[in-house]
Queue: 3 jobs
Job 1
Amino acid sequence: MAEFDIVIKGGTIATAADIMRCDIGISGGRIAALGEGLDAGARFIDATGRLVLPGGIDGHCHIDQPMSDGSVMADDFTTGTRSAACGGTTTIIPFACQVKGRSLREAVQDYHRRADGKAMIDYAFHLIVSDPSDQVLGQELPALIKDGYTSFKVYMTYDELKLDDRQMLDVLALARREGAMTMIHAENTDCIAWLTEKLELAGRTQPRFHAISRPKPVEREATHRAITLAELVDIPVLIVHVSGAEAVEQIRWAQGRGLRVYAETCPQYLFLSEDDLGQEGIAGMKCICSPPPRDKANQPAIWDGLAGGVFQVFSSDHAPFTAGDAKGKLVAGITPPFRRVPNGVPGIETRLPLLFSEGVGKGRITLQNFVALTATSPAKIYGLHPRKGTIAVGSDADLAIWDPARKVRITNGKLHHAVDYTPYEGMELTGWPVVTLSRGEVVCEEGAVKGTPGRGQFLPRGRTWPCCRTRGLADAV
Ligand code: DUC
Ligand code: ZN
Ligand code: ZN
């Protein structure tokens, strides 16, 4: 009998630390051996000339998330995970979102129903805490964290989600007590509301004014405030979807002072700009997301942050709204004010190829850095490591086999999401994931979906950071 279910032979393996030539023996869905000349396989995959990388972890994506504005996300767990898998991703962490005034546990149960029987790859849930009531802080959230939902997002803007500073301090203190990771959407809500009102009064409601209503200082101020609140409580935090050079500066400053501030950025801040948003009508609406894409001169600052270690996580912030029907971008009509256009761009499948081609391929980041940003660091920060995010004996055999020379022109027709556009239409990339394995099973091969809905498993997670009770102002209260 063969020792291994599958042997991946002859590839070049990269982890966040090393690049090496060796075979991978897989048994029972896990990596059982790494070595030269592994020959006892029931099946072989020839990876000669290819790179074998840990499957990506998309630590920030929105799938089948209920919306309050009447829009409906195009991707459910079947199409969202299928698209992720075909882009080399093997774990996703979307959001179970609390509705203000309602139970957080109820949101989690609803979200499980949405995922059950549908996912093709493994998944965990972040929580979104929009109403930190006594019941939520005293009972629901601690119990959910113990049950393995060990990270949550809080918003400093959006009326239906935002917390004020005092509420932020309350949830950060809870995260500290329970060992959870807090993700923060950092934009100053009053500045946005004030600017939006002035723009609307002046009739400036086209998509390009979306960016003008949320300029870089609005993000910079909120980022600094989030860092300050976290410092007061003495807790690590992760600032999500960082877009502007000025916010990057704040994070670099905080990290330089030894604060445990992690940061995430996304493809839209490297590859889209205010020029895309400046297009008339639906073309501009397709690129409305928050924070907005900045000017082109801002993009090198994001690359510098990726190369220089300011960012630990590169996620898609996939928000799947169609452009051609009234369920998505057009939910409020065909020429709505920017304020009423659902925020977000699709990108769960293009996240890794874009960063690989333009980052690794063009010498802006190393291959090991690519693996760290897209798999290993999110696995560590969100409590999935070492089961996920690396190539090591005992880890799940979640792997993406890349053809580093494959030339691909992105067109929406090649993608596997249920959205009717990609903001990256026409981009020419070099390098593409050609085979994706989830727990040792091929789920996508040469663009053909092989996984079955429902094979993906929910992943309860461990504590996300070593609890520290020994220093900081928080010890005084
Ligand atoms: N901004 C968010 O905060 N979430 C979804 C997408 C977006 O653009
Ligand atoms: Zn956000
Ligand atoms: Zn988001």
Job 2
Amino acid sequence: MRIREDGRMAEHALPEHAGDIAPEEFRAQGHALVDWVADYLATVEQRPVLSRVRPGQVRAALPAEAPVLPEPFAAVLADVDRIVLPGITHWQHPGFFAYFAITGSAPGILGELLTAALNVNGMLWRTSPSATELEQVVLDWLRRMLGLGDGWFGMINDTASVSSLLALAAAREAAGLDVRTKGTAGRGDLPVLRVYCSTQAHSSVDKAAITLGIGHDNVVHVQTDAQFRMRPDLLAAAVRRDRSVGHRPLAVVATTGTTSTTSIDPVPAIADVAERERMWLHVDGAYGGVAAIVPELRGVLDGVDRADSLVVNPHKWLFTPIDCSAFWTRRPDILERAFTLVPDYLVTTERGEVTDYMNYGVQLGRRFRALKLWMVLRAFGTEGVTARVREHCALARRLADLVDDEPGWQVVAPVPLSTVCFRYVGGGGLDGAELDRRTAAAVDAVNASGEAYLSTTRLAGRTVVRFAIGSLRTQWRHVQRAWDLLRAAVDEAAGVRAS
Ligand code: PLP
């Protein structure tokens, strides 16, 4: 843009090609892209699950500068095929069994498209009443599907990490320490604040404590029982010990579906301790909470009606494209007290009558995530999602039975949901370190095959395979194949011919 000598901007013509594309062109490109997506989903199984690019390879194939002139959509799509796809690890692949296997279902993908088309920022009720009210309704639906009663306030965040951060921020607010106003630095009147979770809890609890100035050292990782569940007696003892030295127990985070083994902490007994000690009880059901939609698995959320807050991630096991984390609290007044801040430019006449979600968290701008979750739930129906979750658990049990029956292999944790933890134990004569090495090498070999992708964890000091089932595309044949590849890999390493 040119500036004239008198300081005013010169008249200029917008170059014809600058900016957005015309609706008719969009229609054509959109059709081409939807065709691309449909082909991708139909053929994803033929691709190697784990990307095979070397570090820096994708970057090196891309130009250092943005193009000066517009480029045709076909050229962009060609580069997606040529440069981007090789650097994709295919989370939509039926052989994806690492971490927690997830699926962006077709209705969810369409929901993302619609979300982008509307491009709503749902910071205030008035900035799109439908965004706020659909979020409230869809979270009420989901809450009822999980078997939870009334009296919960729901909101959608990007991730469980953020949902748990908000929970602990609310816990700090509830403690009445005036940290919101005065901060923590230089305050002799503040006790040391303590947060409790099990040794199996997700690192997002630690990160929340780091972020909130509680301090990593003040996250107490309570030991678990032989089934990797938090021991409430040890929780009570830790709280007692902390009180005796003047610390302030702030909150306890129970996990229903821990990351390594999907163990389910005994929430009712933990709630007893939380109530007695006046601590905030947050339940992290990021992965496992979803299982409560299956009537026979409803027990995973036993006792949660006594919690102050709960997180369940539809982007983990409810077929909603990442990101979508459902967060509920029974104490929205505290959450609002922790985060309300209304600058002049965001004052509205309906304040007090409506929910302005910006007042319940850190972020101002909010994506319209409820839309895709609503579209998923309507497309599947409660019957559909229930059947899928139930099927994943059945596949996991079937795999666990196979592993149990296989000499030289051992299932090392209960399988309450859809993840199986097991390891190679050999036929005797090999030490623990060698068994760890063989277990890890077998996983590496499977991952190199391109047919499946598994991850590992450490349990009781030993390396174990985590086999997580959660993809809509996974059938028994995919599970069986990955298991066959694992067995063949250890046999090969041991110099035995694979059968
Ligand atoms: N909580 C549990 C139990 C998890 O397993 C995970 C991730 O796997 C998280 C929290 C973090 O989830 P997010 O990636 O949504 O922050």
Job 3
Amino acid sequence: MFQIGCHLSVAKGFAAMGETALKIGANTFQFFTRNPRGGAAKAIDPSDLERFLKMKGKNHFGVLLAHAPYTLNAAAKDPQVRRFAFEAMSDDLKRMELLPNNYYNFHPGSHVGQGIDAGIDKIARLLNEIMTKEQTTTVLLETMSGKGTEVGSRFEELQEIIRRVDLKEKIGICLDTCHVYDAGYDIVNHLDDVLSEFDRVIGLERLKAIHLNDSKNPFASHKDRHEKLGKGSLGAEAIKRIINNPYLKGLPFYLETPNELDGYAKEIALLKSYRKDEKEGK
Ligand code: FE
Ligand code: FE
Ligand code: ZN
């Protein structure tokens, strides 16, 4: 099954996101667990969730991806900032159990001058404080572009976080195609080599989800500006190869391209036309 969706607004609740997904031809979606600008998360309405879970079963949705606020920084130097990361993430993981067996993605963090190793240490320690044996959610580290002092733009850094996490069976990676290209992994001309490198350093079994974005900036720019599919430096042919790659095609794909809903609907239709198995009706 081609698991394809996009980022949707959580403002009107889960049933509304499910309906929107179906309307635009998606069978999964990504949503923010709370306002990225911080503050308390809205309580989940049980009847809304129940409606959504029914819809999810009936329509064979793929795995859902919750995204932590991108403003939280698990690697921060300031204890207050790390405290917010701890509270928001542990609360998110508790709430995710209302929607069991899905994924929770976060940006590992920025070391803000402390150095990569100090950043990695803080991120891993925070994960060890918030993850529990009982959780059904898999926590995903997102591959980053390396802008500023971001941790996680090299596969080695992500692997080092995983190595220090205790509950390894509950951790994985979300690969963002814009970010890795901006970080200097040439998925346009050497996709197979990049995936071999990923396998050698981290292990492909850790790869759980793809953020499918084109990039406004050139290769290795360390910028992180998403572009519509086929309109950026990755281009349509690279996107086609990515969604049909034998190691990637079974993963869920989430669009974070600069689009309104009609734009997402068009991109999803285009991607389905690119997929070899969709054409054969599998
Ligand atoms: Fe992200
Ligand atoms: Fe992303
Ligand atoms: Zn990005």
